Amino acid sequence: MRNYEVTFIVDPVLSGEETKATAQTYVELLESEDCKIVHVDEMGLRQLAYPINKRTSGVYYAIEFSVETGEVISKMELSLRRDERIMRFLTVKLDKYGVKYNEDKRNGLIGKKRQEEEEEEAQEESKGSSRESSKRRKPRKTLAGQGAEKPAAKKPAAKAEEEE
């Protein structure tokens, strides 16, 4: 089985139901071609890096699927090109590392959930260690206190005349 992922951006002008219906049409297209849908990820409304069709945002969808042969890809990409609701799309063949990454992301080992857990742990640790670290802090040394200040050098008038 070959694993693929297609990511596409739907026009944000459409209503929520229309965007979901757009994504569902491509899921049904893949299922009709004997593809096994692994996961459909609705990433939601996001800002674009640059304007596309005078739009600065779009609704992102990612469909991960597996299929015996890659013949369905050309049919799907043709329908994506013809669909006016789709602003951009990208189809990628996943290797074993891509499949593992997506699986870990779905299980919460990678991404926002994992980051939130790590931040909570760090906050708990910092609360306990902040008292100890405040005792160890040394006062900052400044250059002014060490007498390292140099007086501002004035430009001599004779040198200024030579430049003219």
Key phrases:
alpha+beta; 44% helix; 29% strand; Alpha-Beta Plaits; 164 residues; 4-stranded antiparallel beta sheet; 5 helices
Secondary structure: elements and pairs:
Elements: E1 2-10, H1 16-32, E2 36-52, E3 55-67, H2 71-82, E4 86-94, H3 96-106, H4 112-136, H5 157-163
Antiparallel strand pairs: 1-3, 1-4, 2-3
Distance between the termini: 79 Å
- Largest sheet strand order: 2-3-1-4
Number of DSSP strands?
4
Q: Beta-strand percentage?
A: 25-35%
Q: Please state the second-level CATH architecture of the domain at 2-95.
A: 2-Layer Sandwich
Shape assignment:
extended
Could you tell me the radius of gyration in angstroms?
29 Å
Brief synopsis:
This protein is α+β, with helices and mostly antiparallel strands and 164 residues long. It has helices spanning 16-32, 71-82, 96-106, 112-136, 157-163; strands at 2-10, 36-52, 55-67, 86-94.
Task: Characterize the structure shown.
The chain is extended. It is built from five helices and four strands, in the order βαββαβααα. A four-stranded antiparallel beta sheet has the order 2-3-1-4. The model has no long low-confidence stretch (mean pLDDT 82). The protein is an alpha+beta fold and 164 residues long. It has a domain of 94 residues: Alpha-Beta Plaits (2-Layer Sandwich).
